[in-house]
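Sequence in, structure out. First:
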Amino acid sequence: MSGQQIARPPIVFGTDGWRARIADEYTFDNVRRCAEGVARYVVQQGTAAKGVMVGYDRRFASEYFAEAAAEVLLAFDIPVLFAASPIPTQMTSFEVVARGTATAIMITASHNPWTDNGFKVKSPSGSAAGPEILAVLERTIAERAGQEPPRRPFADGEAAGLVERIDPFEGYRAYLARTLDLDRLRAADVSVLVEPLYGSGAGWIPRLLAGGRILVREIHSERNPYFGGVNPEPIRPNIDEALGTLAAGGYDLGLLLDGDADRAGAADERGTFIHQLQVMGLLMYYLLEHRGLREPVVYTVNETSMVERLGARYGVPVYETSVGFKYVGPKMIETGAMMGGEESGGYGFGMHLPERDGIYADLLLLDLFLREREQGRWPVSRVVEHLHELAGPSFYLRSDVHLDRATYPQVKDRLWQELSGQPPATLDGDPIVRSVTLHTNDGFKWWTSDGSWLLIRFSGTEPLVRVYVEATSAERRDAMLRAGERLVRAAR
């Protein structure tokens, strides 16, 4: 009926944007609603003339969802910088910083299953939009739920000069050269395997390192919205093919990226996965020992305790935040941090961008390994051993307990009540000596006497409960992980 309002579900931005299943909640209509929230926010801030960067990844129809978002911005006469092809998420952050745009939109679901897509927003600083911005967006979207967002055809906006198609590669390469000697990396006599997991980071590392002695081979570089049947997250078992290639010999190390290339990973010469918490420790050690930096470090509650130990060893302050770079980025800016990191493999750097950049992080890891080789620590597996000699053990594992999407909110509430009302007294027979409720009331963390910890957290982007463990031995890690899974399944 004419004038009848349409009932629409609320759109809630989780730890890293809004994500949903394509053709279910993730529709062109809802993408336009999100874009209208951004447009009205920019207009209210008086920054519309600065324009908005719009990027997209290689997921199903991402470029078309990006155009839909751009058409809403154009209806508000907001100039649009539009990616000429799929790009890594951090390139939207780079363009905000380089061109001074009001904000940026990125169409991506990061490492979510191939069935999903998502909508990320960047702050004017280039960091992930913080809770204060996202709250305004959510409120505006909710208030406009019964009305269609205005639209201006993309071709019309382009003809009017309001759309500029851009390729950020050359500008980004020049930006990297301020803080990283790419020529030195290109000249290295090493062989590197790169695994981009079919994502939008494909081709970037080989292009950045082209023209020297270094040998770089990339696998899974073609576009495949199915991601080969795995989630595009650079952890096992998703990367097992790359690990097998490394184990067969012929490479000095492996560098890994997730589906939108804002998360990093690595493996050694034997095909042994260097887990995300070890990468955090390696990058922090690199900045402290090889770059001589002494600014603070920011890390999430599910990150490694090596951060605290390295901070104490080198005399630098460390700050813990809730899970998500929407907390890490603002805290980095507030404290002048040299680095921020989260368990999922996202690392940002004060000398670079206050946002995750898997490509930059991977290149810093390569620089670390080459510098360590000059000091007699080689191969890469020896560098990892040296980290633990300095920072202590880190036997880490995460388990994802998947739940039904439709009933997830109810199950989450029930789990919260049961785990807060009857928390465990021991883990693997060891008494719990310390416990905390996560900052945003989305989980619990418990420590045992030897410093091992277990964290149970409700995902903000997927219908699942994550169980994390960092322990002092592999045996203790496995036992504590089983104990955590039993807690979740019993409450479920």
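Second:
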Amino acid sequence: MTAPTITAPQLTLARNAAEAALAVLPTSYTLVAGDPVTPGTGTMIEGQAVTARFSGAAVGEVVVVVGQDLADALRESPLGELDLTAAVRPALEAASRIFGPVVLDPGQVMEPQVALSALAAKDGAVAIPLRDDVDVRAVLALSLSPWPSDDPLAAAAAAAAAAGGGVAQRIAAPVGRRGGGLDMLHDVEMEVSAELGRTRMSVRELLSLTPGAIVELDRAAGSPADLLVNGRLIARGEVVVVDENFGIRITEIVSPGAE
């Protein structure tokens, strides 16, 4: 495999970024971060890539490639089709934070070959394969402009900021075997919202709203509130107050399709 043309301290930072991403990456395999390579060199896997730029303490781009099994599990979730970008975003954030406080853009889904080839054309690009004992199951790739200082002490300090230190692993399905689609989604963060009720209004009525106006909803007082995940009804409950914050006490779990 072709070695990236960046320094040893920078490779250490890249590896720590991969390990930080791996700690929050949804997967049903036991994975470890492999040796850094040039993006596209032994890192092309069947699946989907999510790429995002970041800026702040460091400026660069990060790409996470996941296997087709995870992409399929998200698309066929019991809760409906889930957003791959949202599922992978914690891994993108964890990797970019290794370089200091940064702001990550929303990101976009791309074909792995397109994303890694575009990154490989940039100076200082590096990819870390995330593999089990058999195959590469995911990839973390980075490009920074410029990379942090070559000072070994600075690199060591940044490396110490990696989440927990050491090699992060996810243990679920036996090595080399594909786990269940639902198991793969257990650590995916999702948007949960509570809804008291709905109504329909004309544009004229919306423009006439003022502070103090009352909007009547389509639900009687005391009726349970709806709990939704990505817009899909999953439960109902009563509104409660927990430490001065509103909460929902679940009273009913809605069966799939019942909504």
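Remark: The longest helix spans residues 8-22.
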